[in-house]
Design brief:
The structure is a single chain. 35% of the residues lie in helices and 37% in strands. With 142 residues, it is an alpha/beta fold. The chain has a single domain, classed as 2-Layer Sandwich (Nucleotidyltransferase, domain 5), CATH 3.30.420.10. A 6-stranded mixed sheet has the order 5-4-1-2-3-6. The two termini are 21 Å apart.
Length: 142
């Protein structure tokens, strides 16, 4: 099974307001070959929490086969809802979509402190805020 590290982040300019999400995927296959992909998206009217969940959805949707995934996020809302069963009072549409994607993969949810010089987290923060600034997402592979 392919091993994947997925860094995800959501951002919002105002809350609610225009938002963006960013994803950095690093996959290692059984032969030890590493591939990376970085991508982001934009939403003109949303909330920060919605963008945090959307980033995780987009990361898992990008995986074409079942994977062993570690999702890194600075969102306690996302990580604790998925790993500790926090209540889902809002954003039920996104939680339902995420629940379907989670069934495909083996996932470990890991919280990282935001703005603490964690390279993957800094990358996705820049992608999410860049999507807001540019009013569009982008996609590239390394």
């Amino acid at each position: 099974m392919k091993r994947v590290h997925a860094y995800t982040d959501g951002a919002c300019s105002g809350n609610p307001g225009p938002g963006g999400w960013g994803v950095a995927l690093t996959a290692t296959n059984s032969a030890g070959i590493v591939k990376s992909r970085f991508f982001s998206g934009y939403c003109p009217d949303t909330t920060n929490n919605r963008m945090e969940v959307q980033a995780a959805i987009e990361a898992l949707k990008a995986l074409k086969t079942a994977c062993d995934v570690t999702v890194f996020s600075d969102s306690q809302y996302l990580v604790n809802t998925m790993s500790k069963g926090w209540a889902r009072r809002k954003n039920t549409d996104l939680w339902q979509e995420l629940d379907e994607l989670v069934k495909i993969h083996t996932i470990k949810w890991t919280w990282v402190k935001g703005h603490a010089n964690v390279p993957g987290n800094e990358t996705v923060d820049a992608l999410a805020t860049g999507a807001i600034r540019n009013k569009q997402g982008k996609d590239y592979r390394a």
